[in-house]
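User: I'm writing a short methods note and want a consistent example. For 2-dehydro-3-deoxy-D-gluconate 5-dehydrogenase, I'll paste the sequence; you return only the structure tokens, no commentary, since I'll be parsing the reply automatically.
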Amino acid sequence: MDLEHKVALVTGAGQGIGKGCAIQLAKQGADLILNDRPGSPTVQQTALEIKELGRQCTVLEADVFSRESSLQLVADAIAWKSQIDILVSNPALTHHADFLEFDIDRFEQIIQSTLISGFVMSQQIAKQMVKQQTGGKIIFISSVHAEMPVARSIAYGAAKAGLNHMAETMAVELARHHINVNVIEPGWIDTPGERTLFSEEYIQEQATKLPLGRLGTPDDIGSTVAFLASSSADYITGAILRVDGGFVHKHCRAEKS
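Assistant:
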């Protein structure tokens, strides 16, 4: 999966899945444009680790939930390298509440941050890829929630389902430009955010109930991103690839008698 001379833009690269994607792309030879929110306490550490791998890297702080900030981010990214070959679109926001009590403004905010932000960023990057005339790879980080109707997560599930369909439509339209568009659906991934929601004891207990016996890691997602970004995946587009350790099937196993 040689990504030498490729330039990748990864949003949300300060920690978790975004960082895992950035590190794995760098290990395969890509130079990185890292994005995270202004004031991110962690994105510079990601940049340091990438530079230690011998790759070029720059950090562009911007709130990709904002249309204006997204447009400026793309302009700044192009100014740094004059090319973008890979986009890993990783913006998301979630909120848990009963449907009957779900705040309308919060619903709109989640659709904006996950679906519309993904549209704005990918459209601008795709325009640059068409201009370059060298093809490209656009990879969206979605979720198994796009297929699973999880209670109290109506906005997040709707946003991710819309993201999946949007990516498939993009794949159809951009194929003539040799731009591959694919989606990864992570399951339960061991990220810092999980520990703001659950105790360590609960996480470890639930991990043993998954078919593969553990939570996923950011590197699991990053390795899949690196594959989809490589020439090995040149004939894959419009795919929705579940990377969940069997999470969606965890209740399907027969118990031993």
